[in-house]
Amino acid sequence: MTYSPVPELNLLKAFQDEHGYESYSECFGLDDWNDVSGLTAGWSKDPAFLARLKPFARATGGGSFYALWEAGDGTLPVVVFGDEGGEHVVARDVRELFRLLTFDTEPTVDHDEVYFYRSADAEHTAAHDEFVAWLATQFGLAATDDPDGIVGAAQAEYGERFTAWKSAYLD
Question: 80 has which bridge partners?
Fold first, then answer.
């Protein structure tokens, strides 16, 4: 059974099925593909809004979640919707999200910003090392110690467009 129409997410789903939900990045786990219940409960029921967003994963222990945004140019940047509000572009594609996951901490999401912080003495999740090795083997990608660089690049490319687009649907 295929998890999603995104090949990289199908590979991650197989990894998660083997290693466990939340086992490879703090509070992260793939959820049901395109379950829009979080969007309709907290953001908008407008079919045009829902048509361009594909929720796919939990981002935090509090209920924030990730979705792919169909940007209208054939790209699928990753956005996060905060459990207490705030919607932000965090990665230009799922592979960049995978690199963010190697930082092994949940994002902090509020109305004005999103950021990733990890204390130097924080322990990694149980399958973190396996995830980092899997990412290198599957995609030739390295772990990051600079989540702000990934988020900043994504926001520079897509942030204004996403803000303009969502403003038609959100107060």
Answer: 66, 88
Helices (H) then strands (E): counts for the chain: 7, 7
Tokens 């509070």 appear where?
27
Cα→Cα distances 140→86, 103, 135, 162, Å: 32, 17, 7, 29
**What pLDDT does 71 receive?**
98
Three-state DSSP state, 128:
helix
Q: Is residue 16 within 8 Å of 30, Cβ to Cβ? A: yes
CA distances from 45 to 38, 53, 79 (A): 10, 12, 18
Statement: residue 171 has pLDDT above 90: no
Q: Is the pLDDT of residue 5 over 90?
A: yes
CA-nearest of 55, 74, 77, 76 to 66 is 55
| pLDDT (0 to 100) of residue 141 | 98
End-to-end CA distance of the chain: 38
Distances in whole angstroms, Cα of residue 15 to Cα of each of 2, 9, 11: 13, 10, 6
